[in-house]
Design a protein that fits this description.
heterodimer, A: mainly beta, 55% strand, B: 117 residues, mainly beta, seven-stranded mixed beta sheet, globular
Chain lengths: 112, 117
């Protein structure tokens, strides 16, 4: 079965600083990988996804992630944090293009 | 496009009563919808897969007689929490699956906050 591990349940960054959220996956076959953002009391919004092709994926709100097969990683980055980036972030994986398995989530706080 | 709605957004009920939550795909048809449960500060846990016109498939450990799922049309799935108890209090999120850009993407609803007194 596929799974993802998010390293760090909480990340605190200064406004304008780099945001780095780590995600490692476990899969026996090439996975589809996703990053979602959740604001308080809301559903999930897709930030970006990797299915096939280019390993560097650009998403919304200035986020990007790189699929590294050798490291089984799909880390999420944003060069310059904004106050509006404060939220919960989930990495997710699917093997069969059907069920999603979510990581435990990382809470991002942004300091002024 | 690809908007999913849930109703109600929040509900408070007494212990022992039943509560129905609706999940609708507003601008697309979805043969498959998913129901998730999320406890505070935790991740989403898949409860069941809802397929239009057939019985739902429940994940291990989820009581199918307690969480009744009906996918009566291509745009509507409902989750009924029967004989609710305080431990059923949670945030329930649905998603609808649609084929886009050569794979099946899930679009999520805004969630329903259930509080059982």
């Amino acid at each position: 079965a596929q799974s993802v591990t998010q390293l760090g349940s909480h990340v605190s960054v200064s406004e304008g600083a780099l945001v780095l959220l780590r995600c490692n996956y476990s899969s026996s076959v090439p996975p589809y990988l996703f990053w979602y953002v959740q604001y308080p009391n809301q559903g999930l919004q897709l930030l970006l996804k990797y299915t096939t092709g280019a390993t560097l994926v650009k998403g919304i709100n200035g986020f990007e992630a790189e699929f590294k097969k050798s490291e089984t990683s799909f880390h999420l980055t944003k060069p310059s944090a904004h106050m509006s980036d404060a939220a919960e972030y989930f990495c997710a994986v699917t093997l069969n293009d059907y069920k999603l398995s979510f990581g435990a989530g990382t809470t991002v706080t942004v300091r002024a | 496009g690809a908007v999913v709605s849930q109703h109600p957004s929040w509900v408070i009920c007494k212990s022992g009563t039943s509560v129905k939550i609706e999940c609708r795909s507003l601008d697309f048809q979805a043969t498959t919808m998913f129901w998730y449960r999320q406890f505070p500060k935790q991740s989403l846990m898949l409860m069941a897969t809802s397929n239009e016109g057939s019985k739902a498939t429940y994940e291990q450990g989820v009581e199918k007689d307690k969480f009744l799922i009906n996918h009566a049309s291509l745009t509507l799935s409902t989750l009924t929490v029967t004989s609710a108890h305080p431990e059923d209090s949670s945030f329930y999120i649905c998603s609808a699956r649609v084929y886009l850009d050569s794979y099946n993407e899930q679009f999520f609803g805004p969630g329903t906050r259930l509080t059982v007194l």
